[in-house]
Design goal:
Number of domains: 1
CATH topology: TIM Barrel
CATH architecture: Alpha-Beta Barrel
Shape: globular
Radius of gyration: 19 Å
CATH superfamily: Metal-dependent hydrolases
Distance between the termini: 22 Å
Strand content: 5-15%
């Protein structure tokens, strides 16, 4: 068991780079929005909502995850969802976040792009008052078609200047990166940052990681710890400063392992691996909790935890000046903590 304290981890300045806004829908807010929007839920209490969180793989998780979004209807709902997350992670001393949103999950329910986008974006601006720099990454659902991705890419055109990057998420089975090669080529051409989910222990994981890196040309890989199975790919991400956004606690819900061993191995090799919470409302673990979980599981040192935190800032899509300032905050905090 590590001797790293909860106080140390919670108070460390942090960045979070793998967070689905729709995955921050806490049961209390879900019930309140259902009542507000006259949506009938089978569940009437927080305990009943939480009882539905029965996951043993990615597919079973998504079967609970997507229907939960039905309570999100008006611009204010999306704003409230995002602000609830920002207020929560302020307690974790999170200074910088890049958050995913899934437009297709809402337009297919009849919600206009402008409705959810403006709600989310306003929350990112108001997060500044909490001391948090926040940006939006638009993700395509990989179990839908590339044509649908292009349609939503076009819908987003009026908002391009407020979108930091483009990502790919949802069910990876039979939906490899190359299915979306053309739309990501367009996004790169238009100047967007690019990332893709390469989920853990999928059929064809290594090929998908290779294609995301060598064909799509991603700047980051979300999850991606299966990369340890191919040293040439590990060497490639080190040489090209490509980061991995690991989510240990969510991993432990959908597989038998949080992939802590892989995280430690990658960290020791110099890969810019980071720790994130993924969908914290469903896995009951925000970013500090994930750091503590993997630190305990792998008996990480204080230096290991600090390196994981610094990695996130170092691969953030913000200015070099901002990155340096965040890293300075980490160093100052560690020095003050050790001086106690």
């Amino acid at each position: 068991m590590t001797n790293i304290s909860k106080e140390f981890v919670y108070s460390l300045p942090k960045a979070e780079l793998h967070l689905h806004l729709e995955g921050t829908l806490e049961p209390e807010l879900k019930l309140r929005l259902a009542q507000k929007n006259n949506i009938e839920l089978k569940e009437k209490t927080v305990e009943e909502v939480e009882a539905t969180y029965q996951f043993n793989d990615l597919t079973s998780f998504l079967a609970v995850y997507y229907p939960g979004m039905d309570v999100l209807v008006e611009k204010e709902d999306f704003y409230d969802l995002a602000m609830a997350y920002f207020k929560e992670v302020q307690k974790h001393n999170v200074k910088y976040v890049e958050v995913f949103f899934d437009p297709q999950a809402h337009t297919t329910r009849g919600v206009a792009f402008e409705t959810f986008f403006e709600g989310y974006y306003q929350a990112t601006q108001d997060a500044k008052e909490l001391g948090i720099e926040a940006h939006l990454i638009m993700c395509f659902l990989r179990d839908l078609s590339e044509e649908s991705a292009f349609e939503h890419y076009e819908m987003a055109k009026p908002f391009y200047d407020r979108i930091l990057g483009i990502g790919l998420d949802s069910d990876e089975r039979n939906n490899p990166p190359l299915k979306f090669e053309r739309v990501f080529k367009q996004a790169k051409s238009d100047g967007f940052h690019i990332t893709m989910h390469c989920d853990i222990d999928q059929v064809g994981s290594i090929q998908n990681i290779s294609d995301a890196l060598h064909v799509i040309g991603v700047e980051r890989i979300d999850h991606g710890t299966n990369i340890v199975e191919d040293q040439a790919l590990v060497d490639y991400v080190i040489a090209n400063n490509i980061g991995l956004t690991s989510c240990p606690v969510s991993n432990s819900f959908v597989t038998e392992d949080m992939k802590g061993k892989e995280v430690k191995e990658l960290l020791d090799q110099g890969v810019k691996v980071t720790i994130n919470s993924d969908d914290p409302a469903y896995f009951k673990s925000y970013v500090s909790d994930d750091l503590i979980a993997v630190a305990n599981y792998m008996e990480l040192s204080e230096a290991d935890v600090v390196k994981l935190v610094k990695n996130a800032f170092e691969i953030a899509w913000t200015s070099k000046a901002n990155i340096n300032q965040y890293l300075k905050q980490v160093d100052e905090y560690v020095a003050s903590y050790q001086a106690k």
